[in-house]
Design goal:
Length: about 130
């Protein structure tokens, strides 16, 4: 089942990210070593909550469930936790959620592939969660 989903995601992502794109998940690992990527990013601005790298996912549809986040992020690597933030009264998604991934490299690939991804009529915004004091 996961392999089928992974193949489907690669097909979808291949349509929105050219294979020779610097940020394509297919070439990211080949073009940048981990140290190059880490050195080019401001790690203090990103949240590693001790369980992994916390990603902020914005512009989710109101009917979004946690299973959607597992399906979107799972093909990029291990996922520790997902959370869809819900309205207390309606129990509908408030339009955003969080995903925690243990490996920086997997989280970075997921951001590069899914930020700007069209989900229905919405365009997702995916980034590392910022520390609250920023």
């Amino acid at each position: 089942r996961w392999q089928h989903l992974s193949d489907k995601m690669q097909g979808l992502l291949g349509k929105i990210l050219p294979k020779n794109s610097m940020y394509s998940p297919m070439t990211m690992a080949q073009q940048h070593s981990c140290n190059d990527v880490l050195n080019s990013m401001n790690l203090q601005a990103m949240t590693n909550n001790g369980n992994g790298w916390c990603l902020f996912v914005y512009n989710l549809p109101a009917e979004s469930e946690e299973s959607l986040l597992w399906q979107l992020f799972g093909p990029f690597g291990a996922v520790n936790n997902v959370k869809v933030v819900r309205d207390f009264n309606t129990n509908k998604c408030k339009g955003f959620g969080f995903v925690t991934m243990p490996k920086y490299e997997d989280a970075h690939r997921a951001i590069e592939a899914l930020n700007g991804y069209c989900l229905g009529q919405r365009t997702l915004q995916v980034s590392f969660k910022k520390a609250k004091n920023e």
